[in-house]
Amino acid sequence: MTELEAGRAQTLAPVRSGAALHRYRDVLIALIAFAVLASLPLFTGSKALLDFVIRCSAYGLFATSLNLLVGYTGLTSFGHGMFFGLGAYSFGLIMQKLGLPIPVAFVATLAITALIAAVIGAICVRLKEIYFAFVTLAFQMLIHSTILSWASFTGGDQGLRGGIPRPAFLGIDLSNHVHLYVTSCALLVLGLLAMRQIAQSPFGYTLRMIRDNAARASFLGIDVWRAKLTVFVLAALFAAMGGMVMALFVSGAYPEFAYWTISGEAIFINMLGGVSTFLGPMVGTVLLLLLNDTVTRYTEYHGIVLGVVILFFALGLRKGLLDFVAEWFAHRRDAGEGR
C-alpha cells in the first residue's frame, strides 16, 4: 500500500465507522418502533385504531417514497400514484388469477413494478422540471385509463371484485385482522429503514448533489441520468409496497388507487410533514388521515377545510410541520451556543 492509499484509508476510517454507527442506531430505532406498534393490540381492542395504523402504513410508504424523488433528488412527480395503483392491482390480480403464495406474489409484484418503472423512468428522467412532472402525470392517466378500459381483466370502474385470497404462510394468516396489522407494521418499518439507508448512503448524497446542481454533478463524473433512473425505480418499488398493503387491507383494488388525485394526496402529505426531514412524510400522513377522518364526521365540505390547512402550511409556515420544528430547535441550539 502506498503512502497516498494509506492516507486515504486513514481519512475514510472515521467516516465509515460513523456511518456504521448511524446504521446500527437506525436499526435499533426500527426494532423499538416495530415492538411498540406490534404490541398495540395487547393494550387496545379498538379495531378503528388498528385500521388507522394500517392505512398510515400504506400511505406512509407511498408518501416517503415520493420524498426520495422530491426532497432528495429534486424531481417533482405528479404521477407517482401510478405505482401505488400498479402495486395494488398487480398483487390483487396475481393472487386472484394465479393463487401464488403471498410472499411470491409480493416479489412478483415488485418485479413487475420495477420493469414498468424502468421503462417509464428512462423516458421521464431525461426531462426538465415541469416537463418531468406533467409527463409522469400523463403516464399515470394512461395507466388509469387502461384499468378502466380493460374491464374483463381489471374489473373496470368496479375494481377487482371477489376479494383477494389470503392463504396462510409461515404461520401468518392475513385474514386475521391482528396478523394483517402486524404484517403491515413490519412492512412499514422495513420500508422506512430501507429508504433511510438509501438516503444516508453515498448514493443518497449523490442524489442531493444532483438536486442542488445537476450540471456540477455531471462535471464531477456522476452519471446523472442513471442516478435519477435508479432512484425513480426505487421510489416506485416502495410506492408499490404501499399499494399492496392497501390492497390487503381493503381486499381489493380500485381505479381510485391509480387516479391522479392519489398523487395529489402524496404531494399534500409531503407539504404537511415536510421534505427536508426523513420522517416528515410520515408526520404528514398521520396529519392528513386524522384531518380526513375528523373533518368528514362534521361536514361534507372537507375539501375546503383541507385546502385551508394546506394554504396555512404553504403560506404561513412555508414549510412542513416537522421541517418547521427541526428548524426551530436548530435556531434554539445555535442561539444557546452563541451565548
From TrEMBL:
UniProt organism field:
Bradyrhizobium diazoefficiens SEMIA 5080
Write out the transmembrane intervals: 27-46, 52-70, 102-123, 130-153, 178-199, 229-254, 266-291, 298-317
Q: Which InterPro entries match?
A: ABC_transp_permease, LivM-like
Protein keywords: Cell membrane, Membrane, Transmembrane, Transmembrane helix
**Gene Ontology annotations for the cellular component aspect, listed alphabetically:** plasma membrane
Among Pfam families, the record links this protein to: BPD_transp_2
How is it placed in the membrane, per its record? Multi-pass membrane protein
Does Cell membrane show up as a keyword for this record?
yes
Q: What is this protein called?
A: ABC transporter permease protein
